[in-house]
Amino acid sequence: MDFEDEDIFMDIDPKILSEKDRWNKHDHDDLHLENVGMTVKGFECPSKHISKDLQVCANSLIGFVNNVLSPASCAVLNDDSNDYVLLFDFLFEKSTALSNNIYELFNFTFTNIYQLESSLNSQDKCGNSKKINQSILGFFKYMLSYVDNYLKCDPNPQESIVIIWNNFNQLKSSLKPLSLIGSTTLSKQSLCHQQFHVYFNVHLYYLLTCYKLLSVQNEKMNSTQFTQYVSEIHSDRETINVDANSLRNDILLVMIQLTELSLKCFNKISQPEDVYHLSPFKCDCVTQFWFILKLICQKMDPHKSNELFWKNLDIVFGLLENEHQEDIGEDSKTDVRMYITCSKPYLYSIWFLKHLLSLNINSNDELIQSPENLEKFIDNFDCTEKITKKLTNVDNISENELRTILTLLDGIISLKETCKPDIITTLWEYFQKRLNSNFVLKSTPFAYTLSCLNNNRSALEVLTHVEQLISFVRKPKSEENSYTLFLRILGMYLMKYNHEQRLWNQIKGRMYSKFSQSKLSTLTEQGIQHVSNLFILLFYIKGNQELVKIQTFLNIILTMKDISPTTREIVLRTNLTFILINIRNNVSLDARLLSPIMNILNENCDHPNKSNYEQVIKLYLLTVNDVFKESEDLTLGQNLLLGHWMSKILSNTKVSSNVMNIFYNLLSLVLSKLRQYQPIERDSQMGMYFSCILEHVLPHLRTDFNFNIDTMETMTEFLSELTLFTLSGGVNYKSETFQILNMLIVNTNVNFELKMNYVKCLISNEDMHSFSLTTFIPNIEIIITQCYLLSLIVSEHTINDSMGKYVEAHCLQRFRQNYAASLSSQYVQEQVLNSSNEETLKQFLRDINLINASITGTEARTQFHNEVNTLFSIEDTLKHVVVTYDKNNSATGKTIITNVFTCVAIIVDYIGGILYKKSKPNTQLQCYIDTLLLQFQVRNIDFKLSGNTTHALRVSFHIYVNALIKLEPVHDNYIARVIKELIQIYLPRLINKIQYETPFSFNRSFNEVESKDMFLLDMIINLFLRKKCKVSDKNSQECLVFLHELLNEYNNVDFVSRFIKTSLDMLLNNLISLNEVDVCRNKIKTILTKCFTNPMVQTIPAVKNHVLIVLTKLSNENLAFSFGQYFQVLNFLLHSCCPGIVTEFRKNILIQKIKTVEMKRGVGEDKVLRNLMEQLDRNIKKVLLVRS
What we know:
The structure is a single chain. By secondary structure, the protein is mainly α. The chain has a domain at 14-385. It contains 48 helices and five strands. It has a three-stranded antiparallel β-sheet.
């Protein structure tokens, strides 16, 4: 606080006061002084929270000020009936205290304020700060009371008015500016808080006192007379003008100081959007002070409402830009500078206005005088419009700042009860010059360049965005730029004044005038996108009334030279959004709207090599799909959206699966919607939908083996909906139903997966229970059952229950009724929860066997077998599955091929006896074998199996072998030949090798039944090993590897005995005949060693006898000419296999065989044979010696 003559106001001696006018209150305790001067209203924050609502009652400060400013203010200021007033702890007579002691009282005020400031600067605790505040307030209130009660009664108050005005002005002018007080945060208990509010109170009561003085002056004389009087009386003294202009300037200076106060926080923000979390009002007292200033301005010029307040505020905003200095009164004497430093003046102005206009005034107190003055802030003097016009003339305003300003401006416009279109047209003038700009925010990626939509959005997403953009409950999004916010402001304004045609004419006149052909030709893709966004918004609000004009502008864009594909797409998306808007509003589609869309679409379909061919198709399909989803009424011309373009898409094989899936989903949606209107006459408007699909879709569908499997699900869904539509149409569509079912079910050229999934999708629909398909195709139940079997065999996923239930009800149940009546009533199928396809297939086959076992008559059994064979006539489809997936290296291909081979093996295993009849050609079993296992090419030794087939057969080979053995190959040459061929072809190819992760399942065919083991081992030995063979082949080596694996896996005595009985002769024969270097010799030795590893084997009489028989046979065949190799074998068996048997053979048989050879040669003894025998004898002795 800066005083001009500081020592005058320090240490004032009470003796200077008039003795007749003052008493110390302690000397007169007998007087009635309760609450005298203490019920005083001043600024005092109730809490730290800054409220947006001002609660006004008679006891509040605003209520007090309002009542003080009213004509009947005496009752407000006289709160006691005492003749004395307590001021600064001294008693004065009310009637003479101010007139006799005005200088002293003001000096007391100065002293108290100075004490408070000194305490603040020295950081001393000032316990009596509140008391000081109340003392000062008591004096200020007394002055108001004095003016109302005594000065008004003075016939010549001029002298008193001047003295009071000048002293109060000197006090006010001596204070620091409000913006220099303390910190930006105020605690209710702090000294800074007290000083802040003392300063506020000084300014408030100064303005109230000046207003009351002016009121008294105006009652006594006019302004000119008063000025002349003052000049005459005080010609030698410097005084201020006591008039309305001075008060207006004082109000303006307070507004400037309050503005500077709020700028302390505002100028510290780092980003414009930080203002969302700030308030220009430091506390509720600041809020109240702004409202009090409005009240005083209203009272000063009641006929012009708030004009003075808004004029002053306009001057303040101008000072932020160094304007309006000339509007400040020249006669005002103040040390407040005539400009205000602000980093972002336009942002501050709009931010301040937003908070000011958002204040709500709540008052229902009947004690308040002139309550009509307590209305909220209303900008009726175009303050907002002026700021908007200024900021749009600035070129260097940042996008972040502009975005924040527009967000606040949006709130202001919504708060204004009436708003001229000037703001809209001003903003449009700004943005229409910058349509080609990106409006990129610093905080968002550059990729976000389109304000409302981008090239990846569908028309529905665009429409949804527009609806959200102009929603009253919408929250601003951080990625939205200034142009988006302009569109919101425009949309909200048009929605508010939608029925004001005059306003709309003004706005559209300004807008449309900027869309000349030359202007539109200068737009980039970005600019066209922004114009498109504007048109969508206008159409959303105004509808078809603006369609002609908008289409005119869009056609100009389409006819520009070198128009880019992206631009065409933007125009298409715009028109498609118009269609969605009309459908939402239940408005019919007409040629004006559809013509440009179909032109772009057909042109695109005719040029499939265009870069954005698929984007345009996809955009159109998605929008039409959304149109039908939104449509509650299909009579609005939606059928015009379908047409010849559909056949063009189907004819183009290069269209991606994604687009085709969208296409089929659209058709499914249309048909499902149409089905609700059945029955539909063919020639009706609804019938036109189906006719269009029948003409442009059905003939062009790819249902053959080249069909795109990636569209499986959506295409089958469409086809099932198409079938259900024709079925629900009854006799009107009977021929079409027959046509569709024949094309998709009876036709053998239909892709098997498509047929399976179509049947599955059709049967799964609950509406199918109402129709009988046998009316159209008598054997359709067999076809459906075949599809069910194929699904179980081929699908890698579990089949749903709907097809299984259908097959149970229409196939198995019919079999039971026709062939096993005794089972029909009591049969309950076993349900396996979450069973695999393989288990489900086995259950089905068990049902077939159960029915077959129940048939007693030969004729019935034969007929049943024929029907089952027909049911399982699916080999051609399976062949195509194998061809399709055999070379597929994916996990899916591997799984499907494995499923096919395994499931067919299970079928042969379970019902092979039904599928095969001895001596009957071309049985179903033969078809399976020839199709999957014994094709012509596999017999070629150079043919290589694919990885998928190899894996499948390694898993399922034993099932085939076991199933065929059940058919008694011993008595059936065909079955025996098939088993022989299977082993001969596949054993060398499937034998275990390092690269196979799955073990060869053929091992599992052994060690079960002796006859089966003997049959298979004998067949393997005779297929791959030959007698008198000197050089082995690769198949022999693979065979020996397999035999060794068998012995490793099954080393029990029984199996080894069978193995020796079937294999020993051929193994020893090859051991004798093969060359010494042949790799098979060592493998044979390993196998023989493995056979006799278990000593128990040698003790079995049957094994021993068989070995002796084999050795005897070999001696007969080899002793005469291959005696060397023969004795090598005997020595090997002696040392490594069966020394006991060899010893017995030497003792009882060998010598006789040698003598027979010698006799045939005609010699007494053959030295070579004798020497070899002696060598054998020596080896026997060594072995016996070692064993003993």
